[in-house]
Amino acid sequence: MFEIHLFGAVRVQAGGRCLSGRDFGGVKPRQILALLALRGNLGKSELADLLWQGSPPANHVATLESYVSVLRRRLEPSGSARHSVIITRTGGYALDADRVRTDVRRFDQLLAAAAGRSAVRALPPLRAAVRIGREPLLTEEPYADWAVEARERYRNRLVEAKLACARHALDLGDAGEARDLVNRALRLDPLAERGWYLRMAAHRAAGDRAAALRAYEECRRILDEHLGVEPSEELRQLFLDLLREDGPAGGVEAAVAAIRAAAHELALVGDLRAVGEGAGSTAWRVVQLLTRATELADSPGRPVLSAAN
Prior knowledge:
Layout: E1 2-5, E2 11-14, E3 17-20, H1 27-39, E4 42-43, H2 44-51, H3 60-75, E5 86-89, E6 92-95, E7 100-102, H4 103-114, H5 119-132, H6 145-171, H7 175-188, H8 193-205, H9 209-227, H10 233-244, H11 252-269, H12 282-298
Parallel strand pairs: 1-7
Antiparallel strand pairs: 1-2, 2-3, 4-6, 5-6
Helix pairs in contact: 1-3, 4-5, 5-6, 6-7, 6-8, 7-8, 8-9, 8-10, 9-10, 9-11, 11-12
């Protein structure tokens, strides 16, 4: 049985041997193995088109066949082409499904196994999928279009797996695991709003209201800088619920962030043109909030005010 790993650097485990790097006989043989593991049966023309980025050489068929021959010998030094794990199909090649297991296929199977299940039943396969995806896909192929596309596809799937895992962990009362998973997901995709919602919810469940408020402000800043948009209504509602909760925000830094965020939210929903209406107008309230935030930021030794005041 051949175990082919595509997360991280390409490597193969078989018969007590482990092949990686130069063991495959060159870059092109290694890429052929990765493509067959990713895409299954591939015709020679399609495989050549992928290998040479749409511009295969005139003699690409013979060259491709020589690369496959090299790869077969490296995978099975004492084997024959007829019984190779790389099967010759009409006009192309495929891996022998009865003799090959790949980590990407296992990753996909684990996600499918978790879909639609309760938190208790979904967590084990999701955790296993997250462990498989510890490294980015195909790290030795930074530029090939097919590798970039596959890496992005599995990065998105991994983000979804981590967020689903975090949601289930939160449902089962494990705010610490949920927070760790969300943080790892947001490092991969800082624009994932669902991740920010879960980060806020995890901090809230852990009793850290200040961190939850800071997370909203960080999310708002990142979305504005990268996309020019505001957080979703769901995120804003969670933020407002946190502001309404009793008790201090949890420190000067948290209070400043919360007050500035509150001013921003008020400016979004209010009429800032009514500046001349004096105390009680939206503009007046925004100015008061920003002034309070500035005072707190400049005087960290002052008593902390509730962010809801």
